[in-house]
Amino acid sequence: MEVMNMSTLSSSGPNMEGVYAPMGISPNPKETESMFDMTYQDHIARGANSIMSILAERNKLDKTKRIQAGYTALSGLSAFHNFINGSNIETEVCEPRELGVDPSCLRPDASDGQYIYVCPLMDVGAIAERWNPKAEIIANLDNWARQFPGGESFQAGWPQSRPRVITMYWKDMKRVDRGFVIKDGEPHFCTINENNPDTGKPDYTDADLITPPENRYTNAWTDSEKRNKKQSRVVAQIRYCTMIPWEYLPGSYTKSQQFGTGFRPPAAPAGTRLKNLNITGDLILDYGVYPLQEADPDDEFSVKFPVKVSGWRYYGGNFVAPITAARDPQRWSNQITSDVAWRLRKAGGKAVMIAKEALVDSNMDEQDVKNAIKEGDTMVLSGAQLGGLQNSHGAVDASPDASTYQMMNLIPQAKAVAESAIGVYESNYGAPSGSGQLVGAMQLQLQQAGVMQQPFYACIADLYEQQNQFYAQAGKQFYSRMPWVMAQMTGDEDMEAILESKDMMLEQFRVKVVMAPDGAQQKLMTDRELIPGLLQLGMLDPITASQLMGRSTPDDVYAASRKFTKMAQKAAADQAQQAEMQAAQAQMDIEHAGIADEEADIAKQETDANLKAAALQQKLAQPAASAEAKWLEPPSDPSVGMP
Q: What angle separates helix 410-422 from helix 322-346, to the nearest 10 degrees?
């Protein structure tokens, strides 16, 4: 509406048209609307991309992929925790052991749960910087962190000398008044009588309400609602509380007791009493309504937690890890390996046994016999004492028997079972395969591996998609309140477009987050394929293409192409209009030339007529002139007329 009003003003005269022309405003309303539609959404999308890219780079999001993949493989879930720290949005990787979700949720991202919490170990300095509690709290935390567990008072301090800080998020509700007001020239259903956190005043009040439009939804309003022109609605919202529970405070303070009766802590040693506990005995650091609500007041399912969770498999409140599928075969293989190792350790070798009596009357002693056996030489022994040579020696074989090696053959079978369970075959990753493999077996293995691994990759991709969606939506809300920071992220033009829509969801602009390839690879594809293709189609000029090379995404190139096409279309229209004007001017020149010739002929005819009239007048005046001249002649006789 603002742009259309400016278009109307620009049509009031050439001076106003010149003022609004640099702003992309034309006196023609249709042309102005076309220019606005082709640029405003581009600014929104490009600005959101810039916010996501800078936040991802600041929080080193790309380097967390390996960590999150490991957590997903071992625990079945991965998560990010987002929070505000000063003038920035911070993101931390959540260890699965430090994350809790509502077991009644049904979705693998836990978005339908009623609560979720994180409980990382934090040092006192990080706690002080993030929440800035009172000096007494910081002093007590620092004192408790210096106490080491030991002796009979094992719970005197904290493990690793750091407290575990719990931040709980849960879904709550509030009651608001909703009604129709005029916004941007159209009826808009919005919240009224609610203070804007930026201005401290409500954007709309009862005085701004209009009569609700007639439709099937407003027809369901009660008579009281129609009379008051508003509805009382319950909307969902996210609340939070950050605390150190009483049960986790050091034993030197709590003395391992429950919170005292009368809502008072038990007596603590001198110098350790903390007066800033709430009525439940917990040390509260922060609480309230979460400031970055990813919510639409007309859609309860749009309420999202700032903790982004993604699970590989989720059954009945439990996350299942991929490693679980291979755990039992691996245990079997480990047991076989341990048993075979024990047997090999206990086993001996094959030894020669020679009767001592065989050395009697022999020319060899025991050492000579040992050397001869080792070297393979001939031995001369006496067999008379034992009744025959065959009775004088033998062999003892204590080496592993065939059953031991048969057990080792079970290990490859356990490995095959594990590969079939998880769909990951070593031959898929370059390991040599047997020559007897059937034709097409490798392709089947690759297909099976893709099917089995797809949930794993989808789990990781879903987590980062949720995170980037948070950066886009919550980042727009957060940095819209700090335009000096946003200007460094998006530039002035994109910042202005985002500021105009800071109270609206991105979905209202048909903007959504779509995961794309790696940034460097995406830029390479853009340089090699997209920009040359648009140049060949004439949808991009060489100067713009040179500016885009090496530093642009497809969205940037498409936006530049639309801008160039729009400018080319406008230039063509201007050229056609100029050509039409030139043709009209030429026709006018021809007409003017014809008129000038006609005027010359008329002037010539007028001159001829004037000459003829002058000649005729002269001819008519000639007798009178002759008579007058004759009358004026002097007489021939000088005496005539004299006295």
A: 170
3-state secondary structure 272-312: CCCCCCCCCCCEEEEEEECCCCCCECCEHHHCCCCEEEEEC
Render pLDDT for 457-466 as a digit per residue (tens, 0 to 9). Answer: 888 888 988 8
Lowest mean pLDDT among 282-286, 356-360, 419-423, 620-624: 419-423
Q: State the Cα angle at 401 between 398 and 403, rounded to 5°.
A: 150
Q: CA of 189: how far to CAs of 126, 179, 400, in Å?
A: 43, 5, 84
Percent of the chain clearing pLDDT 70 (strictly above): 75
Cβ within 8 Å of residue 92, ≥6 positions away: 80, 81, 83, 120
Q: Name which of 529, 24, 79, 562 is nearest 307 in CA terms.
A: 79
Token representation of residue 576 = 């056609």
Is 641 within 8 Å of 635 (Cβ atoms)?
yes
> What is the distance between the alpha carbons of residues 134 and 137, in angstroms, rounded to a whole number?
5
Given this model, what pLDDT does residue 140 score?
82
| Cβ-Cβ contacts under 8 Å for 387 (sequence gap 6 or more) | none
Task: Count CB atoms within 10 A of the CB of residue 273.
Answer: 13
Number of H helices, E strands in the chain: 19, 13
C-alpha distance from residue 277 to each of 122, 138, 284 (Å) = 19, 13, 7
Could you tell me the CA-to-CA distances from 460 to 69, 437, 452, 499, 560 in Å, in that order? Answer: 7, 33, 14, 32, 33
Cα three-residue angle 65-67-70, rounded to 5 degrees? 105
- Looking up tokens 């090699």 gives 528
The per-residue b/e assignment along 288-308, b for 16 or more CB within 10 angstroms, e otherwise, is: eebebbbbbbeeeebbbbbbb
Instruction: For residue 160, give every residue at least 6 positions away whose Cβ sits within 8 Å of its Cβ, in sequence order, or none.
Output: 121
| Residue 382, C-beta contacts closer than 8 angstroms, at least 6 positions apart | 357, 358, 359, 360, 361, 362, 392
- Residues 119, 168: contact at Cβ < 8 Å? no
CA distance 356 to 365: 10
- Specify the pLDDT at position 551: 72
- What's phi and psi for 291, nearest 5 deg? -70, -25
Domain segments of the chain as ranges: 83-322, 323-451, 517-630
At 356-405, the pLDDT tens digits run 777 777 777 878 888 887 777 777 777 766 666 666 666 666 677 777 77
CB count in 10 Å sphere of residue 235: 18
